Amino acid sequence: MQTFRFEIEKQNPRSLQRAGVLHTPHGDIKTPAFIAVGTKADIKGIEGGHFSALGVQSLIANTYHLFLSPGEDLIAKAGGLHGFMGFDGPIMTDSGGFQVFSLGEGFGKKISKFSGGAPTESPSPTAGLQGDVSEGDSAPVALWDEDLATSHGKLAIVDDDGVTFTSHIDGSLHRFTPERSVEIQHKLGGDIFFAFDQCTAPTASYEFQKEAMLRTHAWAKRSLAAHRSGEIDRLRERSGVSPQAIYGIGQGGQFDDLRRESAKTIGEMGFDGFGLGGSFSKKYGDDSLASALAMLNELPAGMPVHGLGVGEPEDILLAASYGVDTFDCVTPTRNGRTGGIYTSHGKIQIPNAEYKEDFAPLDETCKCPVCFSAQKGTNHTRAYIHHLFRTHEMLGPILASMHNLYFLTHLTSQIRESILNNNFEHFRVEFLEKYRRG
């Protein structure tokens, strides 16, 4: 069985973009590549038998959600995520950091801490973001709140050792540390997983971003040590999990000096790859992504880079121009569920009345199974999918999600071919001119 290795097939010495292959125990990922989001060991609305036809090479599963249900031990009994979901391709898992740090609205909403059985006042958002359990307090107990049932864990208390958070399912209290995140991800059995990090809001102050970055660096060291410990090796042998690669995550928010420092620090630790972390605007014209991408210049040459949450076509093209190799984002299925469709001429909203009698495919250039049939040409029309949405048929969001996923996997495949053929810039300009013109 092969272990993890990144091979660069083509890189112009005068540019940063590159085409390569990530070799993993469960197969190769040809890069650049869009990694489908498989939050709960599924790609929402898409059956596994369609993955190949939609260009899915790999997916990324969510540690937070799988920890809460069905639990890492049950998944380990099934042979890891590959056996559990019946997918034999490469799988990534995140650290759970983004979910447990999705803070804000939940604070002060019928959630209390108890000290020795006596309730105390609910923490403020600021205290929750930076605070610890008060000295002398017993372990905090969160009251279940129906407001949390449709959100991420909203009460999280961060300290230097880890984070205590509530489940969005029942409000029960849990604790993630770097070591615990690594243990869970080893049991999930993905080919590539990420070190535990502290995510921040893009609007956070310089002082807070620096504090979170330094904590992320400390947790990165602990994640790496836990991954390479003898205890983990024994666990892997008992469970039959294949060798796994670990990526460190760079932070720093909107501050260039922190970004550079974070990339250099993580890059020197000996990780197998790098995750471009943090929040940045997805709106075209905002330079926050470009600013974040500049940190990649501090990484060792040849280190594979994953763009966490990078999924809009403009952003994928920009990130690829800086040498990002893989991308993941919920946009194809999230947009698909509400009728948002990617086309070569920009996005459309298929439930709109203008598509009621439109008998063209979603995108006339698309060869996905939704748009195209080798036997009859056009497969499903805009009018048909419009009808499905207007009548609230579940097939509508499924077909839209399938098309959108193919659109992004095909886009990254086209980027790869353009790099191999030495015409990436021409492809990028041509694609964006048509896409923005709409």
Give an overview in words:
By secondary structure, the protein is of the alpha/beta class. It folds into two domains: about 5-100 and about 175-335, Alpha-Beta Barrel (TIM Barrel), CATH 3.20.20; about 335-435, no CATH class. The protein has 15 helices and 20 strands. The strands form six sheets. An eight-stranded parallel barrel has the order 4-5-6-12-13-14-15-16, surrounded by four helices. Strand 17 (about 340-345) and strand 18 form a beta hairpin. Helix 7 packs parallel to helix 9, helix 11 runs parallel beside helix 14 (about 395-420) and helix 14 (about 395-420) packs antiparallel against helix 15 (about 425-435). Mean pLDDT is about 85; it is low at about 105-155.
Key features?
438 residues, alpha/beta, TIM Barrel, 2 domains, 3-stranded antiparallel sheet, 35% helix, 18% strand
Topology:
Layout: E1 5-11, E2 18-24, E3 27-31, E4 33-37, E5 59-61, H1 63-68, H2 72-77, H3 80-85, E6 91-93, H4 97-100, E7 114-115, E8 118-119, H5 125-130, E9 156-158, E10 163-166, E11 173-176, H6 178-188, E12 192-194, H7 206-227, H8 230-239, E13 245-250, H9 256-267, E14 273-276, H10 288-293, E15 305-308, H11 313-321, E16 326-328, H12 331-337, E17 340-343, E18 346-349, E19 372-373, E20 377-378, H13 382-390, H14 395-420, H15 424-437
Parallel strand pairs: 4-5, 4-16, 5-6, 6-12, 12-13, 13-14, 14-15, 15-16
Antiparallel strand pairs: 1-2, 2-3, 7-8, 9-10, 10-11, 17-18, 19-20
Helix pairs in contact: 6-7, 7-9, 11-14, 12-14, 13-14, 14-15
